Amino acid sequence: MDHVNRGDPASILGLDAFDESTPLAAQLAEDARRRMSLEGRTFPRPPETKILTVANQKGGVGKTTTTVNLAAALAIGGLRVLVIDNDPQGNASTAMGIDHRAGTPSTYDVLIEDTPLSEVVQPCPDVDGLFCAPATIDLSGAEIELVSMVARENRLRNAIATYLEAQAPEQRFDYVFIDCPPSLGLLTVNAFVAAREVLIPIQSEYYALEGLSQLLRNIELIRGHLNPTLHVSTILLTMFDKRTNLSRQVADEVREHFPAQTLEVSIPRSVRISEAPSYGQTVLTYDPGSTGALAYRAAAQEMAERAAEGVTAAVSQSQPQSAAAPRSEDVNE
């Protein structure tokens, strides 16, 4: 064993005996390196609270999954994080193990009844420093009820601002994530007006970029009329499969059009990530050593380091040309 490089995580775990050119061994080695680099790591705090809306008009891209797992990863990294579930389905609340049965104080009460956010927020039972304002089925009627209200687009922003201003400096939240439905109704508009940044999860599959230009145009409309500080700061590739040409081509297209916004870390397709919500957990607590959990922790670390360094990258006012969708015959299974 004298030939083993004890500083190399792959060697420590005995992975040096494998050829890393094979997909399985390469993944094991990457997981080992991430596990070693993340062990006991505390993430840097941003200079001020960062409020991000997680949005994508296309369904099934991992929007809610990304919200709860990034939030949990940042909290495990020592930060204080709040998730505001602004989707009537309440999937984010479910994944965090938060009670959101009908009648539970929720974002509906905040938006419609002017209930203070402090009376709605619950701590996540599995992760210290992680909190959630749950959504109940009542929120499904909020779109209609908001129509006749004064300053209807600003109600969530005002509630968040009041809540954050009342916090002591040492107890302030480092990140606030707002999870919205996959549509541009008044709930999503409220989320865009309340946030300063947009995080867009993009699925590494066919038609992933379809609709992205429309989403960016909608964000520009919000910038022009309701929230001039809003910008797309982060794009995260989800359901990535490095074994296929299709995933690699989608990733290349996204990075070509949004080089400054796209995180280096991508999230792989993972059974563990999909299973975790059915147990009322994020993948970070359901299977912390899994490939998906390590990927979300690495993505959270990249986000935290960029925020601490003051790296902000707003999408240009000019829209990128629509990227051509990869041909299905290019897929290499």
Can you describe what's shown?
- With 333 residues, this protein is of the alpha/beta class.
- The protein contains 13 helices and 7 strands.
- The protein has helices at residues 9-12, 23-38, 63-76, 91-95, 107-113, 142-146, 155-165, 186-194, 212-225, 245-257, 271-275, 283-286, 291-308; strands spanning 50-54, 81-85, 122-123, 130-133, 175-179, 197-203, 231-238.
- Strands 3-4-2-5-1-6-7 form a 7-stranded mixed sheet, with helices on both faces.
- Strand 3 and strand 4 form a beta hairpin.
- Residues 1-15 and 312-333 have low confidence and may be disordered.
Secondary structure topology:
Elements: H1 9-12, H2 23-38, E1 50-54, H3 63-76, E2 81-85, H4 91-95, H5 107-113, E3 122-123, E4 130-133, H6 142-146, H7 155-165, E5 175-179, H8 186-194, E6 197-203, H9 212-225, E7 231-238, H10 245-257, H11 271-275, H12 283-286, H13 291-308
Parallel strand pairs: 1-5, 1-6, 2-4, 2-5, 6-7
Antiparallel strand pairs: 3-4
Helix pairs in contact: 2-13, 3-13, 7-8
